[in-house]
Amino acid sequence: MARSKNPVKNIVILISGGGSNMQAIVQAARDQHWFEKYGAQVACVVSNRADAQGLASSAALGIAHHVVDHTSFETRAAFEIALAERLDAYQPALVVLAGFMRILTADFVARYAGRLVNIHPSLLPAFTGLNTHQRAIDAGCTVAGATVHMVTAELDLGLILARAEVPILPGDTKDALAARVLAQEHLIYAQAIAALLAQQLKMQHDATEMNPN
Ligand code: GAR
Q1: DSSP codes joined into one string, 44-102
Q2: Omega prior to 121 cis, within 30 of 0
Q3: Among protein residues, the one whose CA lies closest to atom 8 of ligand 1
Q4: How close is the Cα of 3 to the center of ligand 1, in Å?
Q5: Mean of the pLDDT values across residues 164-184?
Q6: Which of 42, 81, 105, 138 is deepest in the core (most CB within 10 A)?
Q7: In what order do the strands lie in the sheet containing 40-47?
Q8: pLDDT tens column, 100-142
Q9: What's the rounded mean pLDDT across residues 88-95?
Q10: Which helix (H) or strand (E) element contains residue 9?
C-alpha cells in the first residue's frame, strides 16, 4: 500500500453528552492499530456543550478537545460556520457524530459529504428522531437496535453502513434497553469506521496505481 505518500487521515468526533461511543472508537483505534493499518488517528473531540461528560473522558484519553457552544450563536448557520472552522483546522478524513444532538443544515452536510457518519439508536428506517427506545417498546416491537449511516440532509436516512439488533425483553424499560443497545453501538461503530478507512485507503491505492506520479 502507498500510505506513506498520503497525509494522516484525521478523524474528528462530535459529541454532546456522555461520549461512550467516542471512547469506544478511540480505544478501537488504539487496540486495532488504525494508524499503522490505515494511517488514521482520532485527532480531536468537539462538543457543542461545555458540560458534556465526554470532554473529561477525551482529556483522560489524551485527545485534543474543544467546545463550540451552540448557545453562543444567534443562528444555526453562525454556529455551523464556527464548528466548520474548528473541524477544518484538522482537515478531517472523517467527521464522526457520536451522540451529537444538533440537527445539521444541508449546507453543513454538503461540506462534509462522503465524510460524515452518524450512529442512531434504532433500526433505521424505523424510529428516526428522538426517544427511540420508548417508542419501540410502546409500538410492541420485539427487536430494537442501532444503525451506523452516512449523513445526508434528510434526518437519519443516509446510506446504512452497519446495524445491530437487540431483543426487547418482556418488561423492558427504555433505560435497560438503551444500555444493552449502547453496548452494541460501541462494537458496530468502530467496525463501520474501520471499514470506511479501509475503503478510503483502497481508493487512494487504486488512484496511485493509475497515476503513479
Ligand atoms: C447513543 O445512544 C447514540 O446512538 C445516540 O445518543 C447516545 C450517545 O451516547 N445518538 C442519537 O440519539 C443521535 N440522534 P454516548 O454519548 O455515550 O456515545
Answers
A1: EEEES-TT-HHHHHHHHHT-EEEE--GGGSSSHHHHHHHHHHHHHTT-EEEEEESS--S
A2: no
A3: 99
A4: 32
A5: 98
A6: 42
A7: 64-67, 40-47, 9-15, 92-97, 116-120, 143-150, 160-167
A8: 999 999 999 999 999 999 999 999 999 999 999 999 999 999 9
A9: 98
A10: strand 9-15
Provide the Cα torsion 158, 13, 48, 88; round to 10°: -90
Between residues 5 and 84, the one the model is more confident about:
84
What are the pocket residues of ligand 1 if the criterion is a CB atom closer than 6 Å to any ligand atom? Answer: 15, 17-21, 54, 98-99, 119-121, 146, 182, 185
Q: What percent of the chain lies above the pLDDT cut of 90?
A: 89
Task: Report the distance separating Cα 113 and Cα 195, nearest Å.
Answer: 17
Work out which ligand 1 atom sits closest to the CA atom of 18.
16
